Amino acid sequence: RNLLDRDTFSKSDPICVLYTQAIGNKEWREFGRTEVIDNTLNPDFVRKFIMDYFFEERENLRFDFYDVDSKSPNLSKHDFLGQMFCTLGEIVGSQGSRLEKSIVGIPGKKCGTVIVTAEELGCCRDSVLMQFCANKLDKKDFFGKSDPFLVFHRSNEDGSFTICHKTEVVKNTLNPVWQAFKISVRALCNGDYDRTIKVEVYDWDRDGSHDFIGEFTTSYRELSRGQSQFNVYEVINPKKKGKKKKYVNSGTVTLLSFLIETEVSFLDYIKGGTQINFTVAIDFTASNGNPSQPTSLHYMNPYQLNAYGMALRAVGEIIQDYDSDKMFPALGFGARLPPDGRVSHEFALNGNPQNPYCHGIDGVMEAYYRSLKSVQLYGPTNFAPVINHVARYAASVKDGSQYFVLLIVTDGVISDMAQTKESIVNASKLPMSIIIVGVGPAEFDAMEELDGDVVRISSRGRFAERDIVQFVPFRDYIDRSGNHVLSMARLAKDVLAEIPEQFLSYMRVRGIKPSPAPPPYTPPMHVLQTQI
């Protein structure tokens, strides 16, 4: 909207070029270009970009705009109209997955705005439940009737076929009714509704030399008409057809039912407005070492982030795209607080217990550094108070409109194991997940136990309803070459990868469906002015 006008006699002819950034070397690569739209400053580009989306990765995007002046593919031959930077998460995490941002890049000029919308490709998530029966199939067995089963194949681009489903065998009948089965649309036809689906009918033999009865072809589009005269198929055996003049068919197969089920995804909830609330809790116990010493895990190095800072930034920068107000409560535990030196296991890093919120990840980092200067590292290491702190908030909104993620960064020596397990078992019923990043050289056996990937965590005989804890040791991510950018991306990927599934497991258990997304954006129509 409102692009700069660079043409003397007419309006600009804009094109948009999308670049993505490699995680390691930060190098921008061209991903694709839209079409050119002639003579307008308010283009609605048609060409879409299809990209892979991972919640746990930060995908930086850059949109460059040019006024096209000739047929040359070389961008330097055209007038630059400005650019916009954002992340894929920022677009997806915006209300209705629609982001409007200013175009920048030409000093002293207003370059207009760009509106980007994202939608998840739908056919990838549908599955269908179908049931078939057959009538008057050829008798293949010498002593009894046939033992029929069906084999489904999807066709590939090159005309070959790939097997995608086998039904069970129904014994000793020429009129079998097979059980209903569920298959994803992707497996059945690769999401292409008109692609051929070949179905073969066999008579099962114990020795594996199953006899071919016949075959027929159909497509997803035909099957989707459901039970009707269109979905009764003649089973044809080409060999028999070639030999016998009077051959009609080897029986018929009928579709009894066809039901489409759409799996809801993490993005459906985000698009419907579910917010992810991010809370951080930092371990201020004495086992971390004196912050003024270079050996301390909390050492404030003026030139680079310490392990705590890196873990906070790595995870926080990705999660913040899904939180509309970008206000994050930041807590500390295991320190003595000024002025009276009382020990606290749940204090606000910004020094304001009534309002522990910090603005953005930068605000969290600032509050963390301020706290290090004012509190005294102490002990013991208790996790339960900060887990219960977040659980109190999570317990007050169980309708699926909010989900809570608590990041605990710790040196791993835990003192209240029993209470922590109890807190986690209780929290597993709530809309929350816990990420624990262990820093330093300690043995993290206790943390592994809390993770619950191998053995589901339990407390006093009660098991956690779902797995909500993800633990990773920071030392596994220190890049030998000193490339912190890559190691942080890998850390974030591993700790955040389980969140969408944990999120969905909560919604499923509670039977919460995504809210409908706000209506899609439609460009305003130009009103024709009429003279009366």
What's the arrangement of secondary structure elements?
Elements lengths: L13 E8 L6 E6 L26 E8 L11 E9 H6 L4 E5 L10 E5 L8 E10 L12 E8 L5 E6 L14 E4 H5 L6 E8 L7 E9 H4 L8 E3 L3 H6 L8 E11 L3 H6 L3 E9 L23 H13 L7 E7 L1 E3 L4 E3 L2 E2 L8 E3 H15 L1 E2 L6 H13 L5 E9 L6 H11 L4 E7 L6 H7 L6 E2 L2 E2 L5 E5 L10 H13 L2 H12 L22
Parallel strand pairs: 15-16, 15-22, 22-23, 23-26
Antiparallel strand pairs: 1-2, 1-3, 3-4, 5-6, 7-10, 7-14, 8-9, 8-11, 11-12, 13-14, 16-19, 16-20, 17-18, 17-21, 24-25
Rounded to the nearest angstrom, the distance between the terminal CA atoms is: 31 Å
Bulk shape: globular
Low-confidence stretches: none
Annotation, overall tally of beta strands: 26
Q: Output the CATH homologous superfamily of the largest domain.
A: von Willebrand factor, type A domain
Class by helix and strand content? alpha+beta
Q: Determine the strand fraction and express it as a percent band.
A: 25-35%
Treating each run of at least 4 consecutive H or I residues as one helix, how many helices?
12
Mean pLDDT: 91
Can you identify the CATH class of the largest domain?
A: Alpha Beta
Q: Sheet bearing the most strands, described?
A: 7 strands, mixed
Identify the CATH architecture of the largest domain: 3-Layer(aba) Sandwich
